[in-house]
């Protein structure tokens, strides 16, 4: 039967019977006319449907009330349909009542149905029909015919809503086709005929009706229709669901079982749980650290699952609060940790607002028990949905609490920064926003350190540490250190070193150099060139730090060079301790030589100091700066029983703060070692020179002693070889080692140094180079150093042999046996010297240094020692 026929039959029967009842089967077909429920639009229609339903119940006999729930065009059309088929007499009150009831029921039926879920597009609906027709190969002819008819339909300009016509035809075709696919979530009909109970189905669909009567009586149809219209099937879905819940609760209560805990009570408990408070049915198990449901509470398992998922929020909140409470007011936790706690509290503000909104909603629902549920009604599932974002934030805060609970200062900032590399953009943005607040104490410490040189770090959170027990004289070397574990991961080691040197330089200028000019200029907070650092702008911070680093280092180096005469001190050490001032050293050697040959115990420092002052006045050293000369002094080393004056005498150079930062004790110790070595070399050279002069005169004095002629010749040859060896060694040290190393140091300090540490490093490299090339350091140089000492001892011992030979020639009583012993000793010393030189040359040949290769060539010229 077509839809118009069903409408005609339905209304005609009502008119003939003067009844207020509908047939169930016919009304269901009418309902199918407006069926296409959309799942996504269901919540929007729920409120309208419920309100319309309540309004119709209260004014069931009022046409204007029923009309208000429909749009004007639909209401007018419905009035015409009812008036056409009822054909009531306006003067007959009974006909008018029948008309009003019929119209009201039809209006309620239409208003209770959701809007279609199909896209309002004629092409879309046409494609749906084509797909339906082409499923069966036997309907291919109908599909082609449909295409032809559809083209005719689209060519009609009078018709405007062509998609509605197509959609209506689709619904009509589905009425008598049970195999057709449903077009709405309710299975094709809002009333769902398949769900109607058997007693409410049309009588002509029942087998026993078919047996007893071919057509059901009108009274029966009227009764069934009234029963259906008065049943819950005409109610909106939300009202049906609520009534079903009440019926289930009543059935459970009547059965004697424990009543099911209502959802409203669970919602109220969950609000308490969200605030870390136990509820009536849900409580916190501190042993297992989880929320559990009261074992006596009758809650369905699906509901329990929902509740347990929601209790995670309270569990996360408790973990966060457990972290915040003890640290928020505990200064020992550190400023960065406290900033982290306050950032967490700030993040919880939105969470508290959500709890307040949810609590107000629950209170509103609890106070209005008669309200019809709608899309604003709070349920467990809606609560799960509404708290999803807050739950995600709480999870992230809980993770941060876990990883940061044992951290503080820069380490805490670094740990949080590592999460900004997460692949989730939400997590990246969230962590960066939180770090802007958490890192503020760290950046305030950083600014004070690089702009003022002050370390405001009472809880050891900054990566620069200060040792207050260290004196100002050791400020640069030991007072400040770097805590590697407190360097944030977004600050590179190079940048951290610059930051460290800036503050250290400011303190060195202020306290060691006694110059606060530069620090006062930086201390001026009104200076616009001093930017404020914040997290996320590391490039701007690097630029500012780099500029401040260059300015501070330049100021410090200029102070050391000009005010404290750094280069003058370096030259003084080279001239006096490294024997660069030749006339001064020669005079000092000649004056002190005889006295240093005596035992060390017989020497007195004041006597040696007087000789030093005489040597200064007798040489070009007298023209040096008096401040430099006043620092030059004599020092006697610790005396042993058999030591001579040569073994304990040394020159000393006094240095004080701040220049002693460059000339630290290790550096001065290396200067002392070089002086002792060069002083010993100078002593050997001085001894050989004196012997050479003496034997040059002896060759004339001992002409009358013919038995010594050969001895004189051998002695002069041996002295010449020794002098050649010592002179080549001196040339190597004074020019190829000291002068070349000095030129590199001088060029670096004047043109390339960037900070005080670089000067200290360059000076240390300079000393290391001259000691290593001078065979005083390094494992490989030990063999050369031992052979050099042996050669020095041989030369000094050989001098005593020459003295014995000279005494023999000067004696009036010449004992030939004594001469033979002297000759034997002479040959023995000559052989030892040649052997040690040969070993020294062999070891020297294993080196690849060009300067040492040149020394080897000069010592073993034409392979003299190798061939012998």
TrEMBL record:
Domain of life: Eukaryota
Limits of the Gamma tubulin complex component C-terminal domain: 566-865
InterPro entries named among the record's database cross-references: GCP, GCP_C, GCP_C_sf, GCP_N
Feature: compositional bias, Low complexity: 45-68, 178-198
Principal location: cytoplasm
Cellular compartments per GO CC: gamma-tubulin complex; microtubule; spindle pole; spindle pole body
Designated name of the protein: Spc98 family-domain-containing protein
Species whose genome carries this gene: Phascolomyces articulosus
Upper lineage: Eukaryota, Fungi, Fungi incertae sedis, Mucoromycota, Mucoromycotina
